[in-house]
Amino acid sequence: MSTSVSPRRRSGAQFVYEELLAQIQDMRLEPGRRLNETELASSLGVSRTPLREALRLLLAEDLLEQLPTGGMVVRRLSTRDAAELYAVRASLEALVAAAAAQRAGPADVGRLNALLDRNEALAGLAEGAMESGHAIHVEIERIADHAWASRVLAQIEGQLARYRRFSNSSPDRRAAALAEHRGIVESIAAADATTAGQRAEQHVLAARGATVAQLEVTLGQ
């Protein structure tokens, strides 16, 4: 007989944090939404104590905003935040891609090419393209094994995840992103650190442009 515990019966703050983080990132908890502790505790099957601890963590990460009245809302999206986040990410991804080019072996390149094939197969689907494209970046980061770059990327990932879906909303941008991914992987396979870094930075800056443009339409700015 299985002894696994249903997620609804888990009560740790880490579980609550991970659940709320996922809901914020995929917009189930939409930007600007005011949080109701009673409703959240009931939906997650937890008490107020782990919920409040999780909310404090999300507040510290700027994914939530404190209201003067004491309540909290999900941080709103903004073109300025997107532009700044992507600028930071562009520099970090350049560093990571260059490091990956110096470290990648044949098996690493093989995994990247397999991920590229998956990215191509899913390029027609916004969600699939987003997830498969992100997987390429995750693999490059793994190959690079750059501890500090990975730490900073992890720190901003919670914010970036909310904006990533805006970067490839059009078929043209998804096709361009796929070509950019191929160029980055080709440079890594050739052990060309300089070009890999440049291509990675250009790719992220192109994603920034697409994201900001789409946000301006979505937010009416």
List keywords for this structure.
mainly alpha, two-stranded antiparallel ribbon, disordered N terminus, 221 residues, 9 helices, 71% helix, 2 strands
Give structural notes.
By secondary structure, the chain is an all-alpha fold. The chain is about 70% helix and about 5% strand. It contains 9 helices and 2 strands. It has helices at about 15-25, 35-45, 50-60, 80-105, 105-120, 125-145, 145-165, 170-190, 195-220; strands spanning about 65, 70-75. It has a two-stranded antiparallel sheet. The longest helix has 27 residues, at about 195-220. It is globular. The protein starts with 12 loop residues before the first helix and ends with a helix.
The spatial strand order of the largest sheet comes to: 1-2
Order of helices and strands: HHHEEHHHHHH
- Runs in which pLDDT lies below 50 for 5 or more consecutive residues are 1-11
Tally of alpha and pi helices: 9
Share in helix: over 70%
- In terms of structural class, how would the helical and strand content be classed? mainly alpha
**Large-scale geometry:** globular
Q: Give a count of the beta strands, DSSP E runs of length 2 or more.
A: 2
Gyration radius over CA: 19 Å
Offer a concise description of the structure.
The chain has helices spanning 13-25, 37-44, 48-60, 79-103, 106-121, 126-144, 147-164, 171-189, 193-219; strands at 64-66, 72-74.
Write the layout of secondary structure elements.
Elements (H helix, E strand, L loop, with lengths): L12 H13 L11 H8 L3 H13 L3 E3 L5 E3 L4 H25 L2 H16 L4 H19 L2 H18 L6 H19 L3 H27 L2
Antiparallel strand pairs: 1-2
